[in-house]
SLC13 family permease
Amino acid sequence: MVVVFGIILLALVLFVTELLPIDVTAILVMVLLMVLGADGVVNFTQISTAEGTSGFSNSATITVLAMLILSSGISRTGVVQIIGRKMSAFAGEDLDKQLLATIGVSGPISGFINNTPVVAILVPVVSDIAHKGKTSPSKLLIPLSYASMFGGMLTLIGTSTNILASDVSARLLDHPFSMFEFTQLGVVVLLVGSLYLVTVGHRLLPERVPVEEDYVQEYAIEEYLTEVVVNDDSPIVGTTVEEAIDHVEFDADILQVVRDDEEFIEPIGQKTIRAGDLLRLRADRDTVQQFVDRETLTLSGSPETAAELEPDEAPDRTLVEVVVPRGSFLVGESLESSTFRQRYDATVLAFRSRGETVREDMDERRIRVGDTLLVQAAPDSVDRLSQNGDFIVAHEPEEPDYRSEKIPHAAAIMAGVVGFVAVPWGAVGAALAGATGIGAFEAMSALSLPIMVTALAGVVAMVATGVLKPTEIYDAVEWDVIFLLAGIIPLGMALEQTGGADLLGSLVAATGAYLPILGVLWVFYLATGLITGVISNNASVVLMLPVAVETATQIGANPFAFVLAVTFAASTAFLTPVGYQTNLFVYGPGGYKFTDFVRVGAPLQLLLSVVTVLGIEFFWGVA
């Protein structure tokens, strides 16, 4: 038991510090459990090799994988973007309407499409709503993320956490979630949470991205943008732009070359520099001064706005923000080691990382999930970035390539995936058999299928109908999520088998001497919400559910009520930007600070803790 707690502590430290990617941490946990388990060196964790690797074959893991593919198919039809644009037309310049549009689209849709891709799709849509409506994106992007979490609690398939919690509930209580098991409570949470965001939440959000400022001013990079003229005797004359950067060895990028009133932009790596060329550089003042002192370059001026970097006579380049999601090849890499510029003919002018704006020595900084890059690139490069799952471009492409003709197919497939799980075919068949006397109707009970089976069938149908191409299904899977699930599922098993859950349950159950059952339930909700703020929501479910069930058993409460409290708390992580991936998606584009999530999320978490606990008591009872 002590060894298991040690592994849990190690996992928590790694999750919080991000010394390793979360999926790698999960695999490390799995390996430690097996090495120290029944088939390993010693038997401290009681986890055999088969149990240690069971996460890969677990129905929750396979279901999440299938749902990610289905969500990708829906997004490729453009239906979410189309709805978003219609809501944008409704929103106009009225902030209340913009909030209603944002929440009204992201909330309900997240009940049927995994909420992570929903937010990834809607970040550029909502950003455009803000810019066109003369509103700061900071007022809309946190509400977008929070509303998607509300919506994720409408159905079993709204978020991967629900699917994992259903699997754990089936193992501990023999009570998996049905498709609409907690929809009634989910609707209450959606309505109360939405009302909070529209009336109170947005007033607590500062305008981190001022309405009138452009990217150059927003990122405060004016002093890092310099125009210089190449001297006749400069050592970089006759070299290419790429060679010049290496030759003078300074932390800078040559963004543009201007010669005889003609501007050359990306790709300019092989452009030969001549005497008299005007170079637009990204470099700090000290670096530039060094080359002025060496008489290599002569200062000319500084562009102070995005318009000066994107003049009317050169419309073939643009500045965009690019968010780095989980699973991107950039995560863990630096700009230099990833060869980002060479791959996309794009230059990074600055980037935001965990609320900090980085403008110098960027090439060596490790990129983390949720970092937002300010990129200058030609439109075709921006389109390539938009179409690549490694990035979320916070700007909608002018002519998006959607398969809108496949919307009916995708909608029918999702209806089938949900319908075959939700409809009580056994009861329908029995009723028809009793009314008609035809025994064949009893066979209808066989049509009630697990969500894993219907989701996999939906994947096949998506490919067969052309909604997805066969090669796209592999890109649609967020493999870090799959490895995370596969790695942490055995940790929950070890917590149960070694008696760790019993011990923790006994400690928490002691509060029952001072608190009513409803109070203990509320404590579990708050504790899960706090834990989820610093580690993965899926990891918090695996750790907290066995303890919650054991506590409920010891105090004579309804264990399923405690399962629901933990599930809702883990899927509504409002307190920090790192607890839930949708928060990371909006962190950079909204220009938020860490404290903004606490300012808006803490009152919301407290409000929903009361609403959820009372809702569980009303719908299911706690005793």
Q: What stands out?
A: The two ends are 30 Å apart (CA to CA). Residues 311-315 have pLDDT under 50 and may be disordered.
